[in-house]
Structures are given as structure tokens and as C-alpha cells.
């Protein structure tokens, strides 16, 4: 087993990984930027090394070598899905806690992975890869039938995606997607497929060891999203029957096997509830933000298992021995203002009181007195609950959100309450475009929504503020929570050029 692990990340995920290390008796090394001098992840580690950027592979490897670490855990975002980083870690005689560089590379290209999946018998969305001329695209679109979706081959997470409703918009969409793909990925290859509107985003956690044993750890329903940023995730999905779950799980395992996968990974599917058809979208070759819902429902510690299998250990559970118990939901608490275009909200956390109780877990990288800057992702915490069934889990989440007190920055907590209490959510009818479609309709943000006052709100109201907010220091700007840097006209955090604090 490893004696010391360097965590090449920051915030809540760095703290989460260090917790697993401590439980396994492994020493931890944090890296931190100038802006993270007083951060929780730095304080939580056994050792800490200052770096200039979380994105400089060579510096991170040097930090691991100089601190005599055996392995590097990349967390999510930053370098977690960078094949060159994974192979550079191996070349330095360190262990990358994740899949092989080859698996990362194979799943990194949408066109290539789609071809691999078709060969492996995994259902993919009808469409074409490798088209060049506008004429070829026009013929393909006609055959697929509108609406169609243009995607960047090198993309992922929605970047370079264009929905085309009819032929008149096709050429402009191709040119726009090409430009964006070239700018963002240095690769202008596109693919075209049938656009499945009002479908659900359902992903399967898969887990494998280096001895060829691979299983799935069931699904996560992640359809509550805004601009490809997930907001609420849950398991089990309220839409899946046991039969469909089994078939999707088998497809996810086949997808992973096709690239010789090991460690934790996620296979994304688009699911059509009208006929229960499902199609492979992409595979994320990292630990995901929403892994805790799977941990609560399966009782497994995914990060501990990542570490054990990276050290050559066997994953001991057969598929038949794995099951989901109860229902788990995660809400991402962001420092942002939903009423003001979801603008990130920065400042000092004058109060930060997390809810607690049976079945409540909070993964956060902040405490009262910390400062939220615009240098990194504005996710403050993940609130995860576990209860006997979906209805009781929703009730528990609503109560926990009422008890979550954040003063000093604006948060999306009231927005999350609005989604959770919406009849569509209760019925499991929230598809991937639901937030966008309901935002302006008045069903979210009702003006007369009674102000929820939880226990902690009352306590916090009686306490004095800590002090005044202070200014920002230099640091590195992260992509969004999932490590992708999509353009979002409403979110200046993702458009550095348009945002001046
Ligand atoms: C799709 C799709 C519908 N039809 N592909 C989004 C990110 C990447 N993982 C793939 N994504 C999608 N691909 C086809 N053929 C729907 C999504 C999608 C989505 C699309 C628009 C708005 C929000 C979305 C949320 C999740 C998935």
C-alpha cells in the first residue's frame, strides 16, 4: 500500500481524498496556490507545497517526488482526464490513481469512442462521424431527420454543441461549431447525430481493478442541469425499471471493457422515457463530483477503493453481490445569484453553518471566515442525503437546505428548494432542458414564496458578523466544477474576459 499520496487538486475534493487517505493510514501532501494560502485543503494535509498553478503537470510531479509521495490523486477537473499527465506520472515512477493513459485517450475523442462503442455492441445515437463537406452534412442531416445535434469530436460536456432544428440553420451551426472546436480543442472535427429532446441524462458508475474485474455500481440521474452544469443528482433514477437498469448496467460494463478500463469511471447515457431507449454519450474517465450519492446507496467508499486498486488490490465484489439501498440525493450549493443570471457571488463567508444529522453528509472545502474568490469554481459544498425512499430523501434534503446557513455571499439554496418542491421533480419528470424551460415561466422563483426559516438561521441571526470582506489575491482560474470550460454568456466566471470583480 502507498505510504504517502499527493493530491493534485483543491477545495472539497482534495479534502475528500485526504479523508480517505487518513482512514487508510496514508500520509497526505497538499498543493496550494497563492489564493489558497488559508484554504481548508491545505490545512487538512500532513504537508503542503506551494505551487503557481494546479495545471502545471511537471511542477506537480516534481512536488510529489520531492515530498517522497508514492502516488498522485488528481481529483476531478484540472489534470484528472489528461492522458499526458497520467503517462508522465507513470514515467516518473509514481502511480496515477485513475485509469490508464490509453483509456483516457480512447474516451477523450467523441468520434473515436463512438466507433469503439458501436464495435462493442453498446447502443449509440444514430448519426455520422468523419464527415467533411457541408454537402455531406446536409445529406446526413436529411437522412437522420431534424432536429440534429452537431458535436465537436474533441469536445465533451456540451462544448461546441449545436442543436439544429431545420436545414436553414445547418451551415451556420457547422461553421460555428468548427470555430469553437478549433479554438477550444485545436481540432475542428465534428460529428452529427439525431437530437433527442426532452431526454434524461442517466450515468452509470463503473469500477474496475487492474486484474480485469469490472462491475457497475448502478446509475445516477443527473437531469437537473443548467448550461451543462449539474445541480441535483440522485440514485436510483425514478425512471428505471429493474430490467432497464440491468441492461444499461451491462452496456456500461461493456463500454468500459472495450477500453481495458480500471479504477473509477462513469458512462453517460441519454435515456428516452417514452420508449425506455438509451444511448451511450460519453465516458468520463475520472471520479465525478456526484460520486457521494453512489457511495451512500451502495455503502462503498469509492475513493478508498480507487486507492486500493491503484496499489494493485483486487476489487472483491461480484456484480450479483452489489445492490442499492434506499435513496440518495445530492444538491450542489453554489455561491451564485440565480435571480441575477446565476452570477458568481464572491466575498467572505461571515456565517457558514452546515446541516447535520442522520443520513446527512456535507462535502465542503470551506469554513466560516474563508473567502470565496472568483479565481475558482463557485461551488461551496455538496449536500448529500440518504433515506429509505425518494419521498423521504426529498423531505430530508428540504429540511437540510433550510438548516444550511451561508452569510456573506448569495447562494442557490432557495433555487434548489424551488426545484425540489416542484411537482415535476416529485414526479421525476425533469429532463435535461427543464431548468432552462422553467426559468422564465414563473413556476420557479415565485414572488410570494414564503421565506423558509430553519433552526440555524435563527441561531445565525443572533450571532455577530465576523468581520468585513477582504480583497482578492492572485491565483489560477479553474474551469467549472466538472473540469470543463464551456462558454456561458450568463456566467462571467466561465468567461474570464467579460468579468471584472
Ligand atoms: C445529446 C443530447 C441529446 N441528443 N446528444 C450534453 C453534454 C454531453 N455529455 C452530451 N450532451 C447531450 N448530448 C443527443 N444526440 C443531450 C445532451 C444533454 C443536454 C443537451 C442540451 C441541454 C442540456 C443537456 C444536458 C445533458 C445532456
Descriptive keywords:
Dna Ligase, domain 1; Rossmann fold; 501 residues; 23 strands; 16 helices; D-amino Acid Aminotransferase, Chain A, domain 1; alpha+beta
**Strand arrangement, major sheet:** 14-13-10-11-12-15-22-20
Ions, cofactors and other bound molecules: ligand MV4
Assigned CATH superfamily of the largest domain? ATP-grasp fold, B domain
Q: Using the coordinates shown, work out and report the CATH topology of the largest domain.
A: D-amino Acid Aminotransferase, Chain A, domain 1
**Which structural class matches the secondary elements?**
alpha+beta
User: Terminal Cα separation, in Å?
Assistant: 46 Å
- Residue stretches low in confidence (pLDDT < 50, at least 5 long) are 446-453, 457-479, 483-501
Large-scale geometry: globular
Q: What is the CATH architecture term of the largest domain?
A: 2-Layer Sandwich
Beta strand count: 23
Helicity range of the residues?
A: 25-40%
Using only C-alpha atoms, the radius of gyration works out to 22 Å
What's the level 1 CATH class of the largest domain?
A: Alpha Beta
Mean of all residue-level pLDDT scores:
90
Tally of contiguous helical segments: 16
What is the domain tally? Answer: 4
Largest sheet: 8 strands, antiparallel
Percentage of β-strand residues: 15-25%
Amino acid at each position: 500500500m502507498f505510504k504517502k499520496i499527493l493530491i493534485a487538486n483543491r477545495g472539497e475534493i482534495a479534502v475528500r481524498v485526504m479523508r480517505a487517505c487518513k482512514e487508510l493510514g496514508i500520509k497526505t501532501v497538499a498543493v496550494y496556490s497563492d489564493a489558497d494560502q488559508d484554504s481548508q485543503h491545505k490545512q487538512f494535509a500532513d504537508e503542503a507545497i506551494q505551487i503557481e498553478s494546479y495545471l502545471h503537470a511537471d511542477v506537480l510531479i516534481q512536488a510529489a517526488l520531492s515530498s517522497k509521495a508514492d502516488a498522485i490523486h488528481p481529483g476531478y477537473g484540472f489534470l484528472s482526464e489528461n492522458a499526458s499527465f497520467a503517462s508522465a506520472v507513470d514515467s516518473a515512477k509514481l502511480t496515477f490513481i485513475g485509469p490508464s493513459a490509453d483509456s483516457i485517450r480512447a474516451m477523450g475523442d467523441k468520434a473515436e469512442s463512438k466507433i469503439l462503442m458501436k464495435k462493442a455492441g453498446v447502443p449509440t445515437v444514430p448519426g455520422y462521424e468523419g464527415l467533411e463537406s457541408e454537402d455531406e452534412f446536409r445529406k446526413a442531416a436529411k437522412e437522420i431527420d431534424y432536429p440534429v445535434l452537431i458535436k465537436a469530436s474533441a469536445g465533451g460536456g456540451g462544448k461546441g454543441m449545436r442543436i439544429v432544428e431545420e436545414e436553414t440553420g445547418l451551415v451556420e451551426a457547422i461553421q460555428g461549431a468548427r470555430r469553437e472546436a478549433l479554438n477550444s480543442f485545436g481540432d475542428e472535427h465534428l460529428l452529427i447525430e439525431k437530437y433527442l429532446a426532452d431526454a434524461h441524462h442517466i450515468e452509470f458508475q463503473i469500477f474496475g481493478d487492474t486484474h480485469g474485474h469490472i462491475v457497475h455500481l448502478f446509475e445516477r440521474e443527473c437531469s437537473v442541469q443548467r448550461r451543462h452544469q449539474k445541480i441535483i443528482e440522485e440514485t436510483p433514477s425514478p425512471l428505471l425499471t429493474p430490467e432497464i437498469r440491468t441492461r444499461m448496467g451491462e452496456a456500461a460494463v461493456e463500454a468500459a471493457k472495450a477500453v481495458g478500463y480500471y479504477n473509477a469511471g462513469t458512462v453517460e447515457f441519454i435515456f428516452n422515457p417514452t420508449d425506455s431507449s438509451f444511448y451511450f454519450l460519453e465516458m468520463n474517465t475520472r471520479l465525478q463530483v456526484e460520486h457521494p450519492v453512489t457511495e451512500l446507496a451502495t455503502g462503498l467508499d469509492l475513493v478508498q477503493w480507487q486507492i486500493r486498486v491503484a496499489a494493485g488490490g483486487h476489487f472483491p465484489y461480484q456484480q450479483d453481490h452489489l445492490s442499492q439501498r434506499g435513496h440518495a440525493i445530492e444538491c450542489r450549493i453554489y455561491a451564485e445569484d440565480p435571480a441575477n443570471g446565476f452570477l458568481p457571488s464572491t466575498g467572505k463567508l461571515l456565517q457558514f453553518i452546515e446541516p447535520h444529522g442522520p443520513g446527512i453528509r456535507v462535502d465542503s472545502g470551506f469554513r466560516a471566515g474563508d473567502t470565496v474568490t472568483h479565481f475558482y469554481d463557485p461551488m461551496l459544498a455538496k449536500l448529500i442525503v440518504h433515506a429509505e425512499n425518494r419521498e423521504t430523501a426529498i423531505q430530508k434534503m428540504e429540511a437540510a437546505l433550510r438548516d444550511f446557513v451561508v452569510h456573506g455571499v448569495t447562494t442557490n439554496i432557495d433555487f434548489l428548494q424551488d426545484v425540489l418542491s416542484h411537482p415535476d421533480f416529485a414526479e421525476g419528470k425533469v429532463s435535461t432542458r427543464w431548468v432552462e424551460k422553467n426559468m422564465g415561466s414563473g413556476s420557479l422563483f415565485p414572488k410570494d414564496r414564503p421565506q423558509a426559516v430553519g433552526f440555524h438561521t435563527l441561531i445565525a441571526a443572533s450571532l455577530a458578523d465576523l468581520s468585513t470582506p477582504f480583497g482578492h489575491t492572485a491565483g489560477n482560474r479553474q474551469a467549472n466544477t466538472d473540469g470543463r470550460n464551456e462558454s456561458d454568456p450568463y456566467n462571467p466566471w466561465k468567461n474570464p474576459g467579460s468579468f471584472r470583480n
